[in-house]
């Protein structure tokens, strides 16, 4: 996707795994940017596990709401161009629906969303990925990493603040470092229901920092945020407008 007119500043929010809180982090960043006066476009390229995109627990609903957009069909289409009911990787969910999800369909959907947001005069765009870096997105072995490299926005990595964080986060950061991707930083996120108060977790941030340097650990979620709004208040000091980047096409 090498179209100069699509070179808005942006960020891509990915995770070390599914269920690490990417949506809340992406939504919190959107709120923080909107509070600085920026108009923020949001995109979840493919959503799975939903029967109703307009339900208040859908990713697109949360992203739109936190970015300050009305929950209307035209905005929902921009926020989430493709969706499936089965909770699985996109390519698997598509097969369960009786069809193939091709890479060209995902690319076209994202490009149309970007164009739609540009028509609304947004200042930047946030994209939330699906699962982890190697989550299968489309037929032919295409993954989230391929989408990150195509869009070429700086990447925010979201990790769970709990057991297994060190290995998964270091692996994700190293995989991004091996390619052309820029890493804006890492967020350690405290997920409701996770036990993140023991000795291994309390030292995770310090140990992680030594392994991912010079990538910055932006936030260590020691306090449990009970809503995306509360998470936004925890991360407000991070000056997200300075972490946005344009594609380098």
| Fourth-level CATH superfamily | P-loop containing nucleotide triphosphate hydrolases
Order of helices and strands: EHEEHHEHHEEEHEHEHHEH
The neighbouring-strand order within the major sheet is 2-5-1-8-9-10
What's the rounded overall pLDDT mean?
91
Multimeric status of the protein: single chain
Count of helical stretches: 10
Name of the level-1 CATH class: Alpha Beta
Classify the beta-strand content into a percent band. Answer: 15-25%
Q: How does CATH name the architecture?
A: 3-Layer(aba) Sandwich
Instruction: Compute the number of structural domains.
Output: 1
What's the β-strand tally?
A: 10
Category from helices, strands and their pairing = alpha/beta
**Largest sheet geometry:** 6 strands, parallel
Can you tell me the overall shape?
globular
Give the uncertain stretches in residue-range form. Answer: none
Helix content: 25-40%
* Alpha-carbon distance between the two ends: 8 Å
What is the CA-based Rg, rounded?
17 Å
Task: Summarize the entry for a quick read.
The chain is α/β, with parallel strands linked by helices.
Describe this structure in words.
By secondary structure, this protein is α/β, with parallel strands linked by helices. It has one domain (8-242): P-loop containing nucleotide triphosphate hydrolases (Rossmann fold), CATH 3.40.50. The protein contains 10 helices and 10 strands. It has helices spanning 22-35, 59-67, 73-79, 90-96, 103-119, 144-151, 165-177, 199-202, 204-212, 228-235; strands at 10-15, 40-43, 46-47, 82-83, 124-132, 136-138, 142-143, 155-160, 183-189, 217-220. It has a 6-stranded parallel β-sheet, with helices on both faces. A two-stranded parallel ribbon has the order 3-4. Helix 7 links the parallel strand 8 and strand 9 (183-189). Helix 1 packs parallel to helix 2, helix 1 (22-35) packs across helix 10 and helix 7 runs parallel beside helix 9 (204-212). The chain is globular. The model has no long low-confidence stretch (mean pLDDT 91).
């Amino acid at each position: 996707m090498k179209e100069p007119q699509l070179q808005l500043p942006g960020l891509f929010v990915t995770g070390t795994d599914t269920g690490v809180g990417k949506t809340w982090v992406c939504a919190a960043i959107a709120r923080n940017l909107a509070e600085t006066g920026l108009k923020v476009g949001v995109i979840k390229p493919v959503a799975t596990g939903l029967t109703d995109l307009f339900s208040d627990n859908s990713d697109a609903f949360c992203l739109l709401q936190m970015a300050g957009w009305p929950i209307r069909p035209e905005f929902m289409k921009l926020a989430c161009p493709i969706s499936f009911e089965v909770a699985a990787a996109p390519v698997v969910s598509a097969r369960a629906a009786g069809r193939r999800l091709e890479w060209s369909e995902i690319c076209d959907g994202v490009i149309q969303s970007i164009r739609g947001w540009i028509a609304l005069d947004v200042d930047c765009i946030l994209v939330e990925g699906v699962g982890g870096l190697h989550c299968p997105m489309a037929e032919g072995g295409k993954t989230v990493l391929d989408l990150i490299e195509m869009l070429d926005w700086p990447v925010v990595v979201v990790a769970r603040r709990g057991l297994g964080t060190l290995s998964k986060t270091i692996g994700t950061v190293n995989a991004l470092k091996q390619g052309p991707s820029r890493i804006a930083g890492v967020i350690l996120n405290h997920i409701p229901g996770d036990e993140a108060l023991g000795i291994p977790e309390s030292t995770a941030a310090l140990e992680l920092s030594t392994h991912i340097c010079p990538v910055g650990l932006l936030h260590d979620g020691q306090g449990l945020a009970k809503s995306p709004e509360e998470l936004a208040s925890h991360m407000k000091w991070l000056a997200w407008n300075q972490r946005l980047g344009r594609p380098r096409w």
